[in-house]
Amino acid sequence: MRVNLYSDTQSLPTAAMKAAMMAAELGDEQAGLDPTVDALCDRMARLLGKEAAVFLPSGTMCNQIAILTHCRPGDEILAHQTAHILTSEGGGGAALTGVQITGLPGEGGQFEVAALDAALRAKTRYAMPQVLVEVEQTANTGGGTVWPLARLRAVADWAHAHGMATHMDGARLMNAAVAAGVAAAEMAVGYDSVWLDFTKGLGAPLGAVLCGPAAFIDAAWRWKQRLGGSMRQAGICAAACLYALDHHVERLAEDHANARRFAAGLAQLPGFEVQTPQTNLVFFKPSGAGMSAEALAAKARARGIAFSVMGPRGRACMHLDVDQAGVDEALGVIREIVGN
Ligand SMILES: *Cc1c(COP(=O)(O)O)cnc(C)c1O
């Protein structure tokens, strides 16, 4: 693939990141003896303003363990109707914990307190216990949008006022922090649990860290053990995450600039509907140009340009393996395809 805009998950570890992995001090993570994993967890707890943290293989496991820890079978979670936990985790909430997730409406993958009010059930024996409110920062299929601080706080305050806990899916939390110029810990205020993925724009080969109060992380560790998420010399991967925190956070601004450049280029094509990007994801509908997103993606792929298709929309994802020249090359190919 000449330019891979399919997903920021497809970026490859750099030579310098691999060198950091090779140099990592290692031990048995499951026994609490891996110093590199410990260093990553300490750093993440501080970065996100929480008491404790646990290293997990993936973001999906962070979400599922958070749900297992916050909820019991029969409980209800309120989340946006496009939330990853609702659409993309294989029904994990239902299969593993036995929760029902109710999808809330709202623009750009975000919801307002009014939507929570509308979903509130009376505390009777007829209704499911409503125990958790979940937000995604950034909201992935909402367009990579950044929740404004005031809305995050209002949602968290509402949840706590109604006796519910709060969880933030921070798969791309650092994208949000860099784009808004707001510290990640500031964004996580009011959220009982929060996690960051290292395999999106941060470019590590695997790993995500779930943060929260010490008692919550103790309980999460129990689930990590039960699910087989306890690892051994996991520091070799935690080292990549530490490297990413040192070297790949500020550069996310380049991805955001590339996303704006790509969106501006697409917007010049007749019949293209382009959502203005706030971070590294660009969603667009080419249907006005007489071609479905799927048909365009197939033609582009044949010419070495990959992007993903989500229903009628295409999604192009910027990351550290794509530079400005790559963006221009992808635009040129798409321009030629729809011009013919
Ligand atoms: C990618 C993603 C996840 C899952 O993370 P994995 O590391 O791929 O398991 C969860 N939530 C959102 C919003 C994501 O984009």
List its traits.
about 350 residues, alpha/beta, Aspartate Aminotransferase, domain 2, binds pyridoxal-5'-phosphate, single chain, about 15% strand, Aspartate Aminotransferase, domain 1, 5-stranded mixed β-sheet, 7-stranded mixed β-sheet, 2 domains, about 40% helix
Describe the 3D structure.
- The chain has helices at 15-22, 35-47, 59-70, 84-87, 92-97, 113-119, 149-161, 173-180, 184-187, 214-226, 235-247, 252-267, 293-302, 324-339; strands at 3-5, 52-56, 76-80, 100-104, 130-136, 165-170, 193-197, 208-212, 273-274, 281-285, 305-310, 313-317.
- The protein is α/β, with parallel strands linked by helices.
- Strand 11 (305-310) and strand 12 (313-317) form a beta hairpin.
- The chain is built from 14 helices and 12 strands.
- The model has no long low-confidence stretch (mean pLDDT 97).
- It has a 7-stranded mixed sheet with strand order 2-8-7-6-5-3-4, sandwiched between helices. A 5-stranded mixed sheet has the order 1-11-12-10-9, sandwiched between helices.
- Helix 1 (15-22) packs across helix 11 (235-247), helix 2 runs parallel beside helix 11 and helix 3 packs across helix 10.
- The protein is globular.
- It has 2 domains: 13-247, Aspartate Aminotransferase, domain 2 (3-Layer(aba) Sandwich); 251-339, Aspartate Aminotransferase, domain 1 (Alpha-Beta Complex), CATH 3.90.1150.
- Bound molecules: pyridoxal-5'-phosphate.
- The site of pyridoxal-5'-phosphate has 12 residues, from helix 3.
